[in-house]
Glutaredoxin domain-containing protein
Amino acid sequence: MIRAVTVYTRTHPKCMQCEQTKRHLGRRGIAFTEVDVDDDPCIREAIEYLGFGSLPVVVAATSEGELVWAGYRPDRIDSLAAHVTSAGNGFSGLSQVRP
């Protein structure tokens, strides 16, 4: 079960991978909260500290743990959507699930 999805983005300059990610999540029916990293320097620093060199950074909190990735990853979005429709099957093929 997905508890929350947060997409960390940048709007100025425009981030094309961020836009693609948001569109794909929307097409797959996955609700998300968008956070612009330029609005909060602490969030931007935390993302950099964690080693993410590109945006967007997507954090999906689920009943199994936390799935985190950077960049436009349609494969991960599709797997997340499949998980919603077949709850209990886990995140097959996704390696960054953190409890």
About this structure: Residues 19 and 97 are 24 Å apart (CA to CA). Residues 2-82 form a domain with the Glutaredoxin fold (CATH 3.40.30.10).
